[in-house]
């Protein structure tokens, strides 16, 4: 863990209004390479809004984002992907009517040229998918299986596989274990730990203290759209973090 | 016991895609068989078969355009009006004495621009649903077509302009009789359908069209410019309606105010019969072709048997309901709950 170095991703003074509603006010966040940051907060505290700002889906009303020390303006999710910022959404953001492989490569499909035309390279998609799923030890019947035919846990696995298929530097996960069976939770947490070892910065949004305390290095709490508290995990306790969620210090 | 279930499961999983893809063709073959038994002398005669293809020629273009729109979970009610407006533009340009190669391009451009207008309205004006935008342009385009033509038919085009809709490919060199020709419009249908099959199944844009229909927020989160793709889809739909206008100009030798009236509903019906889902993301080009054929054969067959056109309406409506109900049953079996 390289907390002393410059952060990989840093957000400063993020404010986001929706009409007259203030969803985020002057929020700071940073994550280092190989570090896992846990973000906690009650419903409506602004966690998901903050993540959508980081992924380029929402433009902040004010504030700035720095990636590897350089200020970046994200116009769309494409921009954040190009930087190596990947998001695993709570609603999974998968197209159920498409096969697993095509979901993993959606928007970034490998192609082959036939004359001046570009055709999808289905063989390559399948090969890369099998190799990647194998690396993450994710078992599915076939890469050609449609996502709507999968169980909740398998869908989550595909969503995580999707986020890590392109040499991600920072992976942001919104409630990664919320929809999972207990034995699948462990697998996802293992996956997060192995991502950290490869130097990826991970941000986990979760309600589950078990998740936070088994994979995170640092935890920060949002309360009513503002930074409320932050600590190294070794310097805090479950009860204290639960107190932060409810707005008590 | 579990192993047995697994085996059954995997067999089912293997068969599902084929049933989904080709099931509709079974219905088509069945209809052809029934018609052949009912009308053994006429139905499969060269003359009648080419007739069916000529009759479905322009509808098949509208249906293909509407199909792409339906895959994105949208709808285009204006295709009939786009075709009429494109046809009127063609007629006016032809009457003004423009050379044929200009005349044949005009409906394509007009159709494309109408589609672009739809796409821009739906995305940039943020219309709550494509139904509303295209309902509006259904009136706007037909009204414009009547305004520019004065609401009267304009007839008489040159052979070059009529070639795609009316041309015949002579097959006497194959030892066939003079009456056994191939309509140019049939070749055109085949070429256009194959091109669009490739586009939808083997290009990134085509894949994104399906992804948008499957889950628009997933497409957006994947960095796909959803609005841009939607504008492309509606523009192509308009372009195909323009091709429809060119075919119709050839077939009827006339631009007339009632061209394509209510044909948007036929186009939607063909897509639905062909297995496209109104919720988007589902359906095949082959299915649309089958849907168009089923409607064409039904009309043709009932005409041959001298059944009143009122019964045709009842039957086509019933087929829509039955086809979708079969689809509902199939989906119940196919998707995990």
Overview of this structure, please?
The complex is a heterodimer of chains A (249) and B (337). With 249 residues, chain A is an alpha/beta fold. Helices cover 31% and strands 28% of the residues of chain A. Chain A contains eight helices and twelve strands. Chain A has helices at residues 47-54, 77-83, 100-104, 122-135, 152-164, 182-197, 209-215, 238-245, and strands at residues 9-18, 21-31, 36-40, 62-67, 70-72, 85-88, 111-114, 117-120, 170-174, 201-205, 218-223, 226-232. In chain A, the strands form three sheets. In chain A, strands 6-9-10-3-11-12 form a six-stranded mixed β-sheet, with helices on both faces. A four-stranded antiparallel β-sheet of chain A has the order 2-1-4-5, with helices on one face. The longest helix of chain A is centred in the last third of the chain and has 16 residues, at 182-197. Chain A is globular. In chain A, 45% of the residues are buried. With 337 residues, chain B is an all-alpha fold. Chain B has a single domain (24-328), classed as Orthogonal Bundle (ABC transporter involved in vitamin B12 uptake, BtuC). In chain B, the strands form two sheets. In chain B, strands 1-4 form a two-stranded antiparallel ribbon. Chain B is globular and about 65 Å long. The mean pLDDT of chain B is 91. The A-B interface holds A 55, 57, 76-78, 81, 87, 89, 91-98, 102-103, 106-109, 111, 117-120, 141, 145, 148-151 and B 10, 13, 198, 202-204, 207-208, 210-211, 213-215, 217-225, 281-282, 334-336.
